[in-house]
Structure formats: structure tokens, C-alpha cells
Design goal:
Blueprint: E1 4-10, E2 16-22, H1 23-136, H2 163-179, E3 191-193, E4 196-199, E5 206-209, E6 212-215, E7 221-223, E8 228-235, E9 241-246, E10 251-261, E11 268-269, E12 274-278, E13 288-295, E14 298-300, H3 302-321
Helix pairs in contact: 1-2, 1-3
Length: 322
């Protein structure tokens, strides 16, 4: 049997109201109230947690927005820097192009000046060589050493012709001709016997001297007067030690009475190359060099060729001075 409980509620005027209640109802009510309280506490805690999370999220969003705004400002600043650097780079490239154009213009002007100077010098040298060739009556071959091309080939590319190209070709041809002309002196000594008729130094009879004699010291150096190939190098009777050089253009030079020679038959020699030493071999009255020039087997006066060499030196010096 359930116990009967009363809940007494007293009013302001002392009136009392009794509410009958059983223990079971009280327990149920207490349980319901406890559940409601727990529910309210849970909801309150969840609400507080949700509020806190929302506040944190809002804070994070605000911070993110601030950072995004700051990032936009940084990006804008970097963009301005990039634009400025791009402009500076463009200006630098433009300056480099301008400098390059100025350098090309300066190089072209310098090249034109050098070409003009070279052409002027070639003209002067050509005139000197023409004077030399004219004075000795030599003929200029259009291509004195041209040979038939063999074992060669390739595509045909026509050459562009110009005045300076013609001048260079002409000068090369002249220089090639001059290389094989016996110009200058084979030794430094004075001339003791000239070309032509003379009194023989041994028997005092009239004789024809087909060369010139240079007095020298025994052992003094003798040089070739032009490019060529040694035709003979031997002991030649009254000429003593003797060297003959074929210049492959009709000219032959001979060197006699040498103490010794250092070239052999078939050797290729160049102008100014040492070929032997002054001596007193053969029919001779003292150390000297007998020097001959023959053109197409006929003796010619070497003095004219030595004078032409002096003319070449003088005009070359004048040209360089000017």
C-alpha cells in the first residue's frame, strides 16, 4: 500500500493548500525533473561549446580575411615591383640595342676606313711594283704560278667582284712576279768589277765580264736574290765553288768563287736565304763574289736590278712616311 504524502503550499494570508502525492509520483517527478535538468544542462553546454566554436571560427575568418587583404596588398606590391623591374629591363635592353647599333656603326666606319687605307696602300705598292717591273722590262703573267686543279671539287659559288678585289688580285700577281725577280744585292761589299767589257784581272787582255764582282771578306754570307730552285751546286772549274738558281720565269742567277755553299741541287730557296760564303776559289785574285743574272740564257746587267731594289726601298719608305 502506497504511503500518502502531502505537499503543503502556504499562501501569503496563511491559507494552506495541501496537495496529495504518493512516493511513486514524487520519484517519477524527481526523475523527470532530473532528466529535464540534465537535458537543459547538456543543451546549455552544447550551446556554450557551439558559441565558442562559432566565435573561434568567426575569429579565424576575420583573421583569414585580414590575411587575404594583406596578401592582396603584398601581391599588388610585388606586381608593382615586377612591372617596375620589367620596365627597367626593357630600358636596359633598349640601351644595349642602342649601344650595339652604335658599336656596329663605329665598327663599320672603322672597317671602311681600314679598307680605304688598305686600298690606298695597295695602290701605292702597285705603283711601286709597276715602276720596278717597267724599269727592268719584265713581263707580268696574269697568273704566273697557276696550275691545273686536281683532286678537288665542291659546289660552284660565283665570286663577287669589286674594285678592291681586282686591286688585291693585281697586287698579289705583282708580288708573285716580284718574288721571282732577282732584285737587290747578294752581299754587302762594294762592286770591284762591273758588267761588260773590261781588262782581265789576270792577263790584262780585253774580256767580256758577264756579271759583277763584289769584294768581301772570306766567310762573308751570300744570300739568294729571288725565290727559285737550285739548278747546280758544284765546283765549276775557273768559277770555283759555284751555285746556280733557276727562278722559273726565264731568269737564272749564278754565284761563283764561293768558299763553300750550303744548298744542294733541287733545293727550293727564297729571297734573302743564306746559300753560302764569300771565298777565293777558282780563277780569282782575292776573296770576292762573282754574281750573274741571265734572262733566257742571255747575260743581263745586274746593276739595273740592284738599282731597282734601291728604288723599291726608297718609295716604300716614302709611302710609309706619308
Amino acid at each position: 500500500m502506497n504511503e500518502q504524502l502531502y505537499i503543503m503550499v502556504m499562501g501569503e494570508r496563511g491559507k494552506t493548500v495541501q496537495i496529495p502525492c504518493t512516493k511513486k509520483k514524487i520519484l517519477i517527478s524527481s526523475a523527470i525533473a532530473s532528466l529535464l535538468l540534465i537535458f537543459l544542462i547538456t543543451c546549455t553546454g552544447f550551446s556554450i561549446s557551439l558559441f565558442s566554436k562559432n566565435r573561434d571560427i568567426n575569429k579565424q575568418l576575420a583573421d583569414l580575411q585580414y590575411r587575404m587583404q594583406h596578401s592582396d596588398e603584398i601581391i599588388a606590391e610585388y606586381q608593382r615591383i615586377a612591372d617596375r623591374e620589367k620596365l627597367e629591363l626593357s630600358l636596359e635592353v633598349a640601351n644595349l640595342k642602342l649601344d650595339n647599333a652604335n658599336q656596329e656603326a663605329a665598327h663599320k666606319q672603322e672597317k671602311d676606313q681600314l679598307l680605304s687605307t688598305a686600298v690606298s696602300e695597295l695602290n701605292e705598292r702597285s705603283e711601286i711594283i709597276e715602276t720596278i717591273i717597267s724599269n727592268i722590262g719584265a713581263k707580268v703573267s696574269s697568273n704566273p704560278k697557276a696550275k691545273k686543279s686536281t683532286n678537288s671539287g665542291g659546289p660552284f659559288i660565283p665570286a663577287q667582284s669589286g674594285n678592291h678585289d681586282k686591286l688585291i688580285f693585281q697586287t698579289d700577281t705583282y708580288l708573285d712576279t716580284i718574288r721571282y725577280l732577282p732584285l737587290g744585292r747578294p752581299v754587302e761589299g762594294p762592286v770591284t768589277s762591273r758588267f761588260g767589257k773590261r781588262s782581265d784581272p789576270l792577263n790584262k787582255k780585253k774580256a767580256l765580264h758577264e756579271g759583277v764582282d763584289f769584294r768581301g771578306k772570306r766567310g762573308e754570307k751570300i744570300y739568294a736574290t729571288a725565290d727559285g730552285i737550285v739548278k747546280r751546286a758544284f765546283k765549276n772549274g775557273s768559277f770555283g765553288n759555284y751555285v746556280e738558281i733557276d727562278h722559273q720565269n726565264g731568269y737564272v742567277t749564278a754565284y761563283a768563287h764561293m768558299q763553300n755553299y750550303i744548298v744542294s741541287k733541287g733545293d727550293r730557296v727564297s729571297r734573302g736565304q743564306l746559300i753560302g760564303q764569300v771565298g777565293n776559289t777558282g780563277r780569282s785574285t782575292g776573296p770576292h763574289l762573282h754574281y750573274e743574272i741571265r734572262y733566257k740564257k742571255n747575260p743581263v746587267n745586274p746593276s739595273k736590278y740592284m738599282q731597282v731594289a734601291k728604288l723599291l726601298q726608297k718609295k716604300s719608305a716614302d709611302a710609309e712616311k706619308n
